[in-house]
Amino acid sequence: MYTVDRIEGNFAVIEDGENRFNRPLEQLPENIKEGDVLDSNFNIRNDNSAELKRKIKEREQALLNRKKK
Predict the structure, then answer these.
(1) pTM for the full model?
(2) Complete DSSP assignment for 19-50
(3) Residue span of the structural domain in which 21 resides
(4) Strands 20-24 and 11-15
């Protein structure tokens, strides 16, 4: 599984947990966006993307709550 870290110009910066690499946007699905989870064929995995986004939101909220104390 891969995660789209960010979009820079005509490239997506993709992570696999250990490595980070660039992939031209023309080789990826048109609707790709930051935070999307991709399978080994670089297709968007909507089921995993939604779960990952939920976990990130929870972690952000936990950090914000911790700063307020």
Answers:
(1) 0.68
(2) -EEEEEGGGS-TT--TT-EE-TTS-B-HHHHH
(3) 2-68
(4) antiparallel
Kindly report, residue by residue over 11-56, the tens digit of the pLDDT. 999 999 899 999 999 999 999 999 888 999 999 987 766 677 777 7
The number of domains in the chain is 1
Query: Are 38 and 4 a contacting pair, CB within 8 Å?
Result: yes
Name the nearest CA neighbour of 24 among 38, 14, 35.
14
Distance CA 2, CA 5 (A): 9
In the DSSP assignment, the letter for residue 11 is: E
Q: Are 36 and 3 in contact (CB under 8 A)?
A: yes
